[in-house]
Specification:
With 440 residues, the chain is α/β, with parallel strands linked by helices. Helices cover 35% and strands 20% of the residues. It has 13 helices and 17 strands. It has a five-stranded mixed barrel. Strands 1-2-3-4 form a four-stranded parallel sheet, sandwiched between helices. Helix 7 packs parallel to helix 8, helix 9 packs parallel to helix 11 and helix 12 packs parallel to helix 13. The radius of gyration is 22 Å and the shape is globular. 42% of the residues are buried. The model has no long low-confidence stretch (mean pLDDT 94). The structure holds 5'-deoxyadenosine and iron/sulfur cluster.
């Protein structure tokens, strides 16, 4: 989502005549887009700005420096107190105002800008795409922001405070944006939101038993030339019967579900305010696997939430072994200010969190690797996104179930959907050979 916001700001500035600097030492404006979900991300952004400020002061004193994103929102003015070289602090509901504020700063109309106010309608402002690159997959895949904010208030999470309450764009605007992207050659769109399957829950009425989110997917599904639809990040609670069923009848909706479980312990899930139990979560995974065999299931897990006992952690280990996630992002609990979990008793020592994190990583890595091995010898449908980032002689694409596949081939395959026979697998990636049949 941050990448998408950065792209929208870059597109906004390019429309005003700015260009992309070859590197930061030659830039007239440097904006750091920041994440606050974990403390490590905030520290990284602060250190980066500190070093940029040092360089700018020495070599290019006229360069404007700014923060945008969640940390800009939550710290506001405080960032300028800490780093006085910063000229601009742009809150999460203000990124569409970047160009206007930079004009003011360059013209000397204002010396500094800190704007972290809420702004009605800002959820509809993230719509511009970079003309050539759409994102790093060279215009083949694109991200489309459909809503902002979150009302779930998980007790560990800072997002509802930095992104505000849920606000959604309307279906027509989103479809128009997707159609424009497809006209420009995009084959796959990923619908984005902090709690994406809560889309339109309050604003858009259910129709024929279909929630607003399913209505939106259906409308996007109608777009000719679009091959694939993904969405992220959903909440397990938002997978109603209608959404589960849509995997059985909407072929462009890919076989992939990211289901952040956070913990395998019911006691932890309750303290986290997640709104589901372990049994319900497992039932959901089984329902999805029944409706679409081969569906890839990924997750996020937090290790070391306050009060997590050895037994709670064992429940998380056993859940991973039971569900066998294709991919698991493991996070060490990070205390975030103003969140309820920050003042809960029994905050765990860092060493214990490290130890559990390493243990869980071993288990989930082994499961992932074993699952990747199962693809060897199979033919998978791959959307070719471009040349491999690691080996520019080879092509890279993704299966519908979100596995990266590397294979030999040239320009003419880029943007095509091919069948690739999988020949080998490393810890994270599949390698294969394209079959002769072109599925387009
Ligand atoms: N500490 C660690 N991980 C967190 N996440 C959210 N808040 C925290 C926190 N305070 C993780 C969750 C979420 C993912 C995007 O980040 O697992 O799903
Ligand atoms: Fe944060 Fe996601 Fe929970 Fe919302 S649903 S509070 S974004 S973890």
């Amino acid at each position: 989502m941050n990448e998408r916001d950065s792209e929208a700001v870059a597109a906004q500035l390019m429309a005003k005549g700015y260009g992309v600097a070859p590197d930061e030492s030659q830039a007239d404006v440097i904006l750091l887009n920041t994440c606050s979900v974990r403390d490590s991300a905030e520290q990284k952004a602060l250190n980066k700005m500190d070093s940029l400020a040092g360089q700018v002061r020495k070599h290019r004193p006229d360069t404007l420096l700014g923060f945008m994103g969640c940390m800009a929102q939550s710290r506001g003015e405080e960032l300028i107190d800490q780093l006085p070289d910063v000229d601009l602090v742009l809150g999460t509901q203000k990124i569409h105002r970047a160009g206007q504020y930079l004009d003011d700063l360059f013209a000397g109309r204002r010396e500094r800008v800190v704007d972290t106010d809420a702004e009605k309608g800002s959820e509809a402002a993230i719509r511009e795409h970079l003309p050539e690159t759409k994102n790093n997959s060279a215009g083949i895949t694109a991200f489309v922001s459909i809503m902002q904010g979150c009302n779930q208030f998980c007790t560990f999470c800072i997002v509802p405070y930095t992104r505000g309450r849920e606000r959604c764009r309307n279906i027509e605007d989103i479809v128009a944006e997707c159609r424009g992207l497809v006209d420009d050659g995009v084959k796959e769109v990923t619908l984005l939101g902090q709690i994406v399957n809560s889309y339109g829950k309050r604003e858009i009425e259910s129709k024929d038993g279909k929630s607003a989110f399913v209505q939106l997917i259906e409308a996007v599904h109608e777009i000719n030339g679009l091959e694939r639809i993904r969405f992220t990040s959903p909440h397990p609670k938002g997978y109603g019967k209608d959404l589960v069923e849509s995997y059985g009848r909407l072929p462009k909706l890919v076989e992939n579900a990211h289901l952040p479980v956070q913990s395998g312990s019911d006691r932890m899930l309750k303290l986290m305010h997640r709104g589901y139990t372990r049994d319900r979560f497992v039932e959901l995974v089984n329902q999805l696997r029944a409706v679409r065999s081969g569906i890839g299931v990924g997750t996020d897990i937090i290790v070391g939430f306050p009060g997590e006992t050895e037994e709670d952690f064992e429940h998380t280990l056993s859940l991973c072994k039971q569900v066998k996630f294709d991919n698991a992002f493991l996070f060490k609990y990070s205390k975030r200010r103003d969140t309820p979990a920050a003042s809960m008793p029994d905050q765990l020592p860092e060493e214990l969190i490290e130890e559990r994190h390493a243990h869980l990583m071993e288990v989930t890595d082994e499961i992932r690797q074993r699952k990747l091995q199962d693809y060897i010898g199979r033919r998978m449908e791959v959307l070719v996104e471009g040349y491999s980032r690691r080996n520019t002689e080879r092509l890279e694409g993704r299966t519908r179930c979100n596995k990266i596949v590397i294979f030999e081939g040239g320009d003419r395959f880029i943007g095509q959907v091919l069948e690739v026979e999988i020949e080998s697998a490393t810890k994270t990636t599949l390698y294969g050979n394209p079959a002769i049949i072109n599925l387009n």
